[in-house]
Design brief:
Cofactor: Zn(2+)
CATH architecture: Alpha-Beta Barrel
Number of helices: 10
Organism: Oceanibaculum indicum P24
CATH class: Alpha Beta
Helix content: 25-40%
GO molecular function: 3-keto-5-aminohexanoate cleavage activity; metal ion binding
Protein name: 3-keto-5-aminohexanoate cleavage protein
CATH topology: TIM Barrel
CATH superfamily: Aldolase class I
Largest sheet: 8 strands, parallel, barrel
Structural class: alpha/beta
Order of helices and strands: EEHEEEHEHEEHEHEHEHEHEEEHEH
Keywords: Metal-binding, Transferase, Zinc
Number of domains: 1
Oligomer: single chain
Number of strands: 16
Length: about 300
């Protein structure tokens, strides 16, 4: 695909990977999530990717009531595209993971394109103790867990949320096979262009954060989807900025945020999501790349519009 004229910045505000012990800046309460999301939009993010957390101890929750404590506030304060997770968190069933999205009927949701090992347990070695027992349990459990996204699960999400709610998807591809899984659904007519393909690097269990892998994922996506897709890049931890920058130079869009990395630079914790958005925006603008507004992102991705959601 030719270089996109403008770059969409997605910000993944809190996720379900990092835990409260890892950084004091992780947004946990609905207020913190809303404030971080609004700040990220002010800094230049046109898509806000959102998970919910239990306000008491920060553990990931699929509870629609918690989502509804921050979604309306974000909608009232920004014109950003709200993108809700369907990946949820470790141990949640597909029904759990869809509870919030099916109630909210957002413009966009993430959709993981295959089952995989998703290893968080190496992070156990970095922290001598944890604020909450659930954090250590959560990390250890990933040693023997499969992040389940079967063909049946994906079909269910495409039907219930895609057809049923007019929601479009950020197709999360953690490895080359995931691109082929997406192509399978395209061939069956269950997914229509333009596709928003988020290639993900550096998760233990997925493809590594290597520049040759970035080029390979781009090449295969081009082969499979031609000019029918918008490409986006995210990379875990210290690889976040370098791979996003490389991808943007190659015509891609970018995703940053505290879900993907808790740092703003080497050894420096990001104080909020806006700090990472402002940093990638500075880099892109120094490279003479223009940043897409939410309205432009909606047009590029053929979204239904912020007035068509249920929050």
């Amino acid at each position: 695909m030719a270089n996109a004229k403008k770059v969409i910045i997605t910000c993944a505000v809190t996720g379900s990977i990092h835990t409260p012990t890892m950084t004091p800046h992780l947004p946990i309460t609905p207020d913190e999530i809303a404030e971080n999301a609004i700040g990220a939009w002010e800094a230049g993010a046109s898509i806000l990717h959102l998970h919910a957390r239990d306000p008491k101890d920060g553990r990931p929750t699929p509870d629609p009531k918690v989502f509804m404590e921050f979604l309306p506030r974000i909608k009232q304060s920004t014109d950003a595209v709200v993108n809700i997770t369907t990946g949820g968190g470790q141990g949640m069933s597909v029904q759990d993971r869809l509870a919030g999205p099916l109630q909210a009927k957002p413009e966009m949701c993430s959709l993981n394109m295959g089952s995989m090992n998703f290893g968080l347990f190496p992070m156990l070695d970095r922290y001598p103790s944890f604020k909450h027992q659930w954090e250590a349990d959560h990390l250890e459990a990933s040693r023997d867990a499969i992040f389940r996204n079967t063909f049946k699960d994906i079909e269910f999400i495409l039907k219930e949320l895609g057809e049923g709610c007019g929601t479009r998807f950020e197709f999360e591809c953690y490895d080359v096979g995931h691109l082929y899984n997406l192509a399978h659904f395209v061939d069956r007519g269950l997914v229509k262009p333009p596709f928003f393909v988020q290639t993900i690097f550096g998760i233990l269990g997925g493809i590594g954060a290597d520049h040759k892998n970035l080029m390979h994922m781009r090449e295969i996506a081009d082969k499979l989807f031609g000019d029918s897709y918008q490409w986006s890049i995210l990379a875990a931890g210290r690889h976040q900025m370098s791979l996003c920058t490389m991808g943007a130079i190659m015509g891609g869009n970018v995703r940053v945020g505290l879900e993907d990395s808790i740092y703003a630079g080497k050894g420096k914790l990001a104080e909020n999501n806006a700090e990472q958005v402002a940093k990638i925006r500075r880099i892109l603008e120094e490279l003479s790349l223009e940043i897409a507004t939410p309205a432009e992102a909606r047009q590029m991705l053929d979204l239904k519009g912020g007035d068509q959601v249920n929050f």
